[in-house]
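[09:14] KT: can someone run the structure on this one? pasting the chain below
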Amino acid sequence: MWDKVDNLSKMASFYLERTKVIQSNIANADTPGYKPKDLVFEKMVDDQMRLKREDPRHIDPNLSGMKFREVESGDIRGYDDNRVDVQEELAKLAESSIMYKALGENLKKEFSKLKLVISGR
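[09:31] RB: done, structure tokens below
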């Protein structure tokens, strides 16, 4: 159970930080020469901890070796060499917000289960 809570909290942390990066991109949409950034997961190689996936469509359950890093994004250049596409950033912001809220709800459910176990019901 704690592994699931830990993984959910790591994912929620990722989406919270990604939201901050996207908000920064939107705020700098008029800054000449600004290059937008995004967050991506970076899998740290740890062959000893890898679980076997039988189908390539399965999600890798090992989030313990995951970390996220900031990367530059955006190919569109404006007249002032700004690469921020506000519509694209707003779509990313909506996605991150929805994922963060969904993960928060899942965490809430896990803690409710834990509360029931502790209370002995």
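[09:33] KT: thanks! Residues 44-50 have pLDDT under 50 and may be disordered.
[09:34] RB: yep, looked fine to me
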